[in-house]
Predict the structure.
Amino acid sequence: MQLRKHFGFEAAHVLPHHPGKCGRLHGHSYRFEVVVEGPLQIGGPATGMVIDFDALSAIVKPAVVEKLDHASLNDIMPNPTAEHIALWIWDALHSKLDQLVEIVVWETATACAVVRAQDARAR
Ligand SMILES: [Zn+2]
């Protein structure tokens, strides 16, 4: 079964290779989805769950939200496109979250980047 949980952060960025307005310093209210898949657990407090949503938050908030919120993303990665932000989040989480299968980063209400394991491996 698959679970999705949404998180958000506010951050500034500039795209150094972009010839248009994204080449100027600006900010976004980013949203991202952490997608996990796995069997329902049997036994213990997470019985009947893939993972407890609270446990998922306890992993994602310190590893991602606290690092990217109110940051200048160019201080963290050289070319912070939605694609690179999604890869950065993947890298921050994949070793901590066995069931991770997908990261979706929404830069605006209508535009998102999706990273799955094969995309992370293809770099
Ligand atoms: Zn932008």
Remarks:
- The mean pLDDT is 97.
- The chain has one domain: 2-121.
- DSSP finds three helices and five strands in the chain.
- The longest helix spans residues 53-68.
